[in-house]
Amino acid sequence: DAGITQSPRHKVTETGTPVTLRCHQTENHRYMYWYRQDPGHGLRLIHYSYGVKDTDKGEVSDGYSVSRSKTEDFLLTLESATSSQTSVYFCATRRDRGYSNQPQHFGDGTRLSIL
Amino acid sequence: AQKITQTQPGMFVQEKEAVTLDCTYDTSDPSYGLFWYKQPSSGEMIFLIYQGSYDQQNATEGRYSLNFQKARKSANLVISASQLGDSAMYFCAMRETSGSRLTFGEGTQLTVNP
Question: Which of A10, A83, B31, B76 has a Cα-to-Cα distance from B98 of 20 to 30 A?
Answer without folding.
Answer: B76
